[in-house]
From TrEMBL:
ARM repeat segments: 174-216
Alphabetical keyword list: Repeat
Record-given protein name: DUF7032 domain-containing protein
Residues of the DUF7032 domain: 11-118
Source domain of life: Eukaryota
Organism: Brassica campestris
């Protein structure tokens, strides 16, 4: 390391000279005493640097050059403190002494970072030029002047954009805690660049846990950007918060620290991109029941309905998804959503979305609203039954399940059951009985057990060649994690028909029912007795 002279004297000589002069200084003795301690620490660091094998590392060269400049300035200020009279005034001299203290402190910390990184001794191996470049950037973010750190964050932002591998390398190099510490001291413009890097990291699934581990420190910085940042900064903060708000503790902290209010303001007046991301954060928060009260206090439903009616497609999807979570098992919230125009908002969203996956949040909202007796008539009057029928056969599992569950809730009266049956949904529900997912089979069974109460719907069901067989197969005790009550109930309604009774017996229901009676499945005993009374089957004895 070039600790030798540059035409004047070595760094160690400059430090030794200052250490010798400090005891004789007459002004600001306590401050110079503190400087003396820092100089001693720097002397130790210089010894470590000089002992390293690297002689060309630019980071250490920059540090030594900056340190030399500070030492020369320190010598100049010390000379002014040797006598009782301060030629440039007490306040000016005190300010200069404080500046020297701060600069030496920064140099000492920078030296510690360099030494601790292993870069000087080349003990950290790198597998590629990118890895080496990213490692240097992580170090540059921790040392030097603010201008240098600003340049480093620009370079880092450029490297991580569009390349997940670079994100993962930088995270492995420890960039996340470095970025969080940088948020404590940088200017607003640099802070927003740091937030942009953090938002990029949050988009890589394997790196999210590192951000979550930073906890409240990172959250508080992001929330401050939400409150006072630029449009760019707010959008990037929302992106990062989408990842962080999946954690219950973080979600609670966001709700308690005024985050919902800031997010709603962005939903109302932010850029199209920031509106979508802000609604995404709110959607995550709404999934935690204890935070719902914060939404009510902030009049969130009005804002979400407005955004769900007129925002971009991603913003509308997130707003509807948030409303769906808020409505879950909360009749008061369901009524509030309806009063604020939520049903018309949902109808508009439903009719404007062509992608079935994007429609899932809308179907879930409908399913949740349909659980409220007062809301059901409103939903039916707005024409949602034919809309449900169309999605029961779509290619998205979650949509089909939610639609079937909505059918179960809307089939609450003889009139609605008949209307739903005539709309053509029974065939789709029979098809769902043969789906791969147990949740799909169960949702279809439950819907059918409600619809088949209606005589005309049973007539429609009987026209299917596979309906009875599909239901009976679900009685098999070997099929676990499946609520058989609905299947039993549907079959109980069907066996009032002689033709269906024969089909049920022929499909092997009797053997399954023996086991289900032993398992005390609700309705199994009654169904078994009905079949036993028929003249077709006399093997299964009446208990």
């Amino acid at each position: 390391m070039p600790l030798d002279n540059d035409g004047n004297c070595t760094l160690t000589e400059l430090i030794s000279s200052l250490l010798d002069r400090i005891p004789n200084l007459l002004s600001f003795k306590s401050k110079w005493s503190s400087i003396r301690v820092k100089l001693a620490d720097l002397n130790t660091h210089l010894s470590d640097i000089s002992a390293s094998s690297s002689t060309t590392n630019q980071l250490s060269l920059d540090l030594l050059l900056s340190l030399r400049e500070t030492l020369h300035d320190a010598a100049s200020v010390a000379a002014r403190c040797e006598g009782p009279d301060l030629s440039e005034g007490k306040l000016k001299t005190q300010s200069d002494v404080d500046s020297i203290t701060a600069r030496l402190d920064r140099h000492a910390k920078d030296a510690e970072v360099l030494i601790r990184s292993g870069l000087l001794n080349e003990i950290v191996t790198v597998s590629s030029k990118k890895e080496a470049a990213l490692r240097n950037l992580v170090i540059r973010l921790q040392i030097g002047e603010p201008e240098s750190k600003n340049s480093a964050i620009d370079s880092l932002l450029e490297l991580v954009q569009g390349d997940d591998k670079n994100v993962m390398i930088s995270v492995a190099q420890g960039v996340v805690p470095v970025l969080v510490r940088l948020l404590d001291s940088c200017s607003l413009s640099v802070k927003e660049k740091v937030v942009a890097v953090i938002s990029r990291i949050s988009s890589v699934e394997s790196s999210k846990h590192v951000l979550i581990a930073e906890g409240l420190s990172l959250l508080n910085h992001l929330l401050r950007v939400l409150e006072s940042g630029s449009g760019f900064g707010k959008e990037k903060a929302c992106v990062a918060l989408q990842a962080l708000s999946l954690c219950k503790e973080n979600a609670r902290a966001i709700g308690c620290r005024g985050g919902i209010s800031s997010l709603l303001e962005i939903c109302q007046a932010g850029t199209p991109g920031s509106q979508a991301f802000a609604a995404g954060v709110l959607r995550n928060l709404a999934s935690f029941g204890e935070i719902k009260e914060n939404f009510v206090e902030e009049n969130a439903v009005f804002v979400l309905v407005s955004l769900g009616s007129s925002g971009t497609v991603p913003a509308r999807e997130n707003a509807i998804g948030c409303l769906a979570s808020l409505a879950s098992r909360d009749e008061d919230m369901m009524m509030l959503i309806v009063r604020e125009g939520g049903v018309k908002c949902l109808k508009s969203f439903w009719d404007s979305v062509s992608d079935a996956k994007s429609l899932e949040v809308g179907v879930v909202l409908l399913k949740n609203l349909a659980l409220c007796p007062i809301v059901r008539d409103v939903v039916i009057s707005e024409g949602f039954i034919p809309r449900l029928v169309r999605v029961l056969s779509c290619g998205v599992l979650g949509v089909r399940i939610a639609a079937a569950e909505a059918v179960s809730s809307l089939a609450f009266s003889s009139k609605s059951r008949k209307e739903i049956g005539e709309s053509g949904c029974i065939g789709a529900l029979i098809g769902m009985l043969d789906g791969k997912a147990m949740e799909e089979k169960e949702a279809a069974s439950k819907a059918l057990s409600t619809l088949l109460v209606c005589t005309s719907n049973r007539k429609i069901f009987k026209k299917s060649d596979k309906g009875v067989l599909s239901l009976v197969q679900l009685l098999d005790p070997k099929i676990t994690k499946f609520d058989k009550r609905y299947t039993v109930s549907a079959l109980e309604l069907l066996v009032t028909s002689k033709k269906c009774r024969k089909q049920v017996v022929a499909a092997g229901a009797c053997l399954h029912l023996q086991k289900l009676v032993e398992m005390d499945v609700e309705g199994a005993k009654k169904l078994a007795e009905n079949l036993a009374r028929s003249k077709i089957w006399g093997v299964f004895a009446r208990p």
